[in-house]
Amino acid sequence: MDSGLLRVQLSVNGQRHALALEPRRVLLDVLRDDLGLTGAKKVCDMGNCGACTVLVDGRPMYSCLMLALDWREAAITTIEGLGEPGQLDPVQQAFITADAYQCGFCTPGQIMSVKGLLDTTPEPTDAQIMRALSGNLCRCGAYGNIMRAARIAAGRDPGTDETGSDTA
Ligand code: FES
Ligand code: FES
Q1: 105 CB under 6 A from ligand 1?
Q2: More exposed terminus of the chain, fewer Cβ within 10 Å: N or C?
Q3: Which residue, among 82, 81, 103, has the nearest Cα to 93 in the 3D structure?
Q4: Rounded distance, CA 22 to CA 32, Å?
Q5: Which of 131, 135, 84 is nearest to 106 (CA)?
Q6: pTM above 0.85, yes or no
Q7: Ligand nearest to the CA of 100
Q8: Tens digit of pLDDT for each residue in 109-166?
Q9: How far does residue 98's CA lie from ligand 2's centre (Å)?
Q10: Domains (ranges, CATH) in the chain?
Q11: How far is CA 8 from CA 24, 27, 58, 88, 160, in A?
Q12: What's the pLDDT tens digit per position in 76-119?
């Protein structure tokens, strides 16, 4: 194209999207600005915080560091592709059960990292959970409940409060 735009198709949440993109565009911006998928957040925009984490062929990756053009053949999953109200993914439900957020800004990235872990390691140890979440910062310091959410999603915590009531 003379305009400097390239025609590409991206596969996001099981749907093919035809786009005309400048080669310099990063995946996070394309998801948010072109496709309206604003679940992945732009915080540091330089690979430090994990708020922009999406799954690429099942692997959690920082979408702020990825040129969109490089991922034409990949299956990209954002938080919007996991579940929806009334039909949440078990990882999303576990974060609600464990009250694993305060402002919620880091939460989509945290959930995608846990999802990526459990898809490959269904029964992770605490060390494996901590390693999987080591690239996701939470400025609110909700780490204790985030760990508990991951354990609940992994079936290692029943998701009940101290009285034995189901907190879901
Ligand atoms: S916005 Fe991508 S790592 Fe912080
Ligand atoms: S819940 Fe606020 S940054 Fe994590």
Answers
A1: no
A2: N
A3: 82
A4: 15
A5: 135
A6: yes
A7: 2
A8: 999 999 999 999 999 999 999 999 999 999 999 999 999 999 999 998 888 764 444 4
A9: 14
A10: 6-81 (3.10.20.30), 90-153 (1.10.150.120)
A11: 13, 12, 21, 31, 47
A12: 999 999 998 899 999 999 999 999 999 999 999 999 999 999 99
Quick one: which H or E segment has residue 150? helix 143-153
Query: How far, in Å, are 8, 43, 77, 105, 114 from residue 138 at the CA level?
Result: 34, 11, 21, 8, 14
Residues 114, 153: Cα–Cα separation, whole Å: 8
CA 131 to ligand 2 center in whole angstroms: 18
Q: Which structure tokens are listed for 9? A: 């198709």
What are the E-state strand segments in 13-155? 15-21, 53-56, 59-62, 75-77
Locate 80 and state its tokens: 């919007």
Distance 16 CA to ligand 2 centre (A): 31
Degrees, nearest 5: CA angle 27-71-135: 60
